[in-house]
Amino acid sequence: VTRVLVSPLDVIKIRFQLQIEQLSSRTPGAKYHGILQAVQRIFQEEGLGAFWKGHVPAQFLSVGYGAVQFMAFESLTKLVHNVTSYNARDSFVHFICGGLAACTATVAVQPVDTLRTRFAAQGEPKVYHNLRHAVVTMYQTEGPRTFYRGLTPTIIAIFPYAGLQFSFYNTLKQLSEWMIPAEGKEGGNVKNLVCGSCAGIISKTLTYPFDLIKKRLQVGGFERARAAFGQVRMYRGLLDCLRQVMREEGLGGFFKGLSPSLLKAAVSTGLVFFSYELFCSLLCALKNTDSTK
After folding, report:
1. In Å, what is the CA distance from 214 to each residue of 17, 114, 152, 194, 265?
2. Could you give the 3-state DSSP secondary structure of residue 123?
3. Residue 130: which domain range?
4. InterPro entries recorded for this chain (predicted)?
5. Of 104, 156, 193, 199, which has the maximum CB count within 10 A?
6. How many domains does the chain have?
7. Is the pLDDT of residue 290 over 60?
8. What CATH number has the domain bearing residue 96?
């Protein structure tokens, strides 16, 4: 459900990240200038369905990443609690465990992430007609390594991003409980939603440049589908991408698409943590019910 809601923001964010020209109406050749203008243009040129391009791989990505991440996080925090003297609720422990859990999940779902980016990046006419066609075409024309394009910046970014996400969420949750004691279950759920949203916004802003670099690398070899979107660049790797973006687009180039990304992060992270806490509460309630029988 969360992925369905944020998919349009994701498509807009990816289009902004891949645009070499500045996001301004004063820039010659710039296809997209801002969120509202992008919505209007995508709708006019590609139809309503364009806002859900890459939705199928995105769903696999969301479910797979979330399942692996939270399973790994719970296992790691339990391990810390059992074999060390650290408090499993400390923000530092949440940072380390959250980062390691995210790295594990990232490696597991990176091929699906690359597919999602390619689908969201292509315009009309489509290069890839469906998921199977995309997998076969990419494998035959670019080889198996293409599915892991952008993995290095992803790993570099995901550890601090997820670590900060869990750490900030834990800190904000403790702070909110201290400042405003929750009144009943509903009050606690609202706090979880707000704390999760704030944690997502802060973490995404701090690590955003690496997400942009990842997207640029993921569409390497896909230039034919980007010709109608303006200038196209080829990057030899992480450092080359960093140099070219800095030289041609300036520091602001690393933050293209930040606005829709923050909106997406606020909604998705808030709902993820909200659902996670709700699910844990339900499991605890069921466990307590079984123990009293």
Report:
1. 10, 9, 8, 28, 17
2. coil
3. 2-292
4. MCP, MCP_dom_sf, MCP_transmembrane
5. 199
6. 1
7. yes
8. 1.50.40.10
